[in-house]
Amino acid sequence: MNRRAPTSLLSGTALLLSVLVLTALPSIAQVTSDRIAALSDYHGYYPCMDCHGDQETIFQPRILAEEHATPLEWTDDDGGIHAVPYGTQVTIAELLGQTDRHDLNAVNRARVGARVGIADYMAENDLTPDDTVWALLHGGGNLWCLDCHDAADRDKLVRFDGQPLSFNESHLLCGSCHGPKLLDWERGIHGKTVGRWDLRGPEAEEAVRWQCVECHNPHAPAFLTLEPEAAPVPRVGGSPSDHGHHDAEHEELEH
Amino acid sequence: MSKSTRFRDEDLGRRGFLKLLGAVSATAAVLPDPAEAFDLEEFMQKHFVELSPEQLAKTLARLEKQYNEKYDRDDFSVNAAPPLEGVRFAYALNLSKCIGCRKCVGACVEENNQHRGDPDKGDRIEYIRVLEMEKGSLDVEKSVHDYTHEVPAEGKYYMPVQCHHCNDAPCVKACPVEATWQEQDGIVVVDYNWCIGCRYCAAACPYWARKFNWSEPRLEDEDIIPDTHYLGNRPRYKGVMEKCTFCINRVRQGLNPACHDICPTGSRKFGNLLDPAGPIRQIIAEKRVFILKEEAGTDPSFYYFFD
């Protein structure tokens, strides 16, 4: 017996569930004054932000990304602070050519293949295919700035279908490729919700659901390794998996 | 020197004096510390669940006074917030996301006022043990606990283990004096004033979740979290058992456990098992969930999952 529900029913249910869950949860992007105050700490961290004021509305540091790969910063002769972008320099020809090398899904292929804005960008800056641009460490090197940033309005993001998104809606941009993760995030399975466990009580507003970009650097989402906190020390003469622990007083009590 | 004269002053040589000193020290060690005056009220205190509201209030006030004096503070508070109606706490941990950084271990030690002695001797009580295991294996006997290399390591995955707050808890059954029990909200607690320190519960626990205070717990003033719960993070005594309480002092106020909020990868999920839209029920419905040592029949409130 085929126990599978019709696809349309399933997707309809999923949509309804998502809407219900989203409306029941606290507001997703809570831009607090503390976060805005933290902007000054991140000068140079988001280089685009130096010129475009609305680049990041969530200034909570990407804790995990920072612990894994602290951005290298340097100061130029004029005192300007710069950060190493999360990417590598490739020629435009290489960037364009890369779309054929990866087995991207249909949506991503359409999006990357279109290379939104790259022709305009080349014309504006008088670039040839031999000039270099930044290729991001994201999407197998297939992505570049204007795949996600709106070529017409740099204070906006843009989805693959051309729909502009606010920086507060960056999860929708991420979800356009990472759909299952977005669904998990909406249901509280993926990501972090800190503060309170009761998301339906009177104080649910105090719970904060972290956005994708608060943990993942969208320009280089892969995490490097990190040093763990101190290991537990085994009792003298024992192995780490021995029960109990040891010091002089313990021996007193034991004997 | 004959045995009969060995303690005479005139015959007591250097060696004899040291022996005598050792004997006196050993005797002093087993006697109560004179600084800790005998407290009749404490001695006569009933089991926590049998305390009347008046007795409970007096007990909490007595403990606050005791802790303030012991730690030379004036801000200790000990509450006994009861279980919340319609709440059954449960925990889920995403093994696909945990990177084994042990941040949960540190946050737990800080939040729960745990004993911190000489770290070089391993003299610290930790409720959480992070196991490093080979991908594809679930053999905890071969897990590595004391890894120091960068994480996550190639080919490894990490499984933090703590109290599973079992619904059929072997530790509760093993306790001869009912000093440990499961509350209505699912949290397995210990009454530190009722525990006799027999450690039967530690032997019974298949998750190695119970930790014993072999020595007088050491806690520096700057490390103290003064907002405590009677069944949770209040300072413990030498010779009593303790364990994870899902941070009872936090979760009964609606807050997440400390290990949950510190986790940098969002591997830890906590919530009300009775809430169908909550993350725990969503995870149980959607993900590949398993419980550790299912064959032990403990029916834990702690789930592991992969995604």
Give a summary of the structure in a few sentences:
By secondary structure, chain A is of the alpha+beta class. Chain A has 11 helices and 8 strands.
Write up this protein.
The complex is a heterodimer of chains A (255) and B (307). Chain A is α+β, with helices and mostly antiparallel strands. Chain A has one domain. Helix content of chain A is 31%, strand content 9%. Chain A contains eleven helices and eight strands. In chain A, the strands form four sheets. Chain A has a two-stranded antiparallel sheet. Chain A has a two-stranded antiparallel sheet with strand order 3-4. A two-stranded antiparallel ribbon of chain A has the order 5-6. Chain B starts with 13 loop residues before the first helix and ends with a strand. Chain B is globular. Chain B is α+β, with helices and mostly antiparallel strands. Chain B has helices at residues 14-30, 40-44, 53-70, 103-111, 170-174, 200-204, 248-251, 258-262, 279-286, and strands at residues 77-79, 89-94, 129-134, 156-161, 180-182, 188-190, 211-212, 227-229, 241-242, 268-272, 288-290, 302-306. Chain B has nine helices and twelve strands. Chain B has two domains: 1-31; 89-306, 2-Layer Sandwich (Alpha-Beta Plaits), CATH 3.30.70.20. Mean pLDDT of chain B is 89; it is low at 1-10 and 27-31.
Notable features of this structure?
heterodimer, A: about 260 residues, alpha+beta, two-stranded antiparallel ribbon, about 30% helix, extended, disordered C terminus, B: about 300 residues, Alpha-Beta Plaits, 2 domains, 12 strands
Overall domain count of chain A: 1
Number of strands of chain B: 12
Helical segment count of chain B: 9
Strand content of chain B: 15-25%
Order of helices and strands of chain B: HHHEEHEEHEEHEEEHHEHEE
Which term fits the overall shape of chain B?
globular
What distance separates the N and C termini of chain A?
A: 68 Å
Tell me about the biggest sheet of chain A? 2 strands, antiparallel
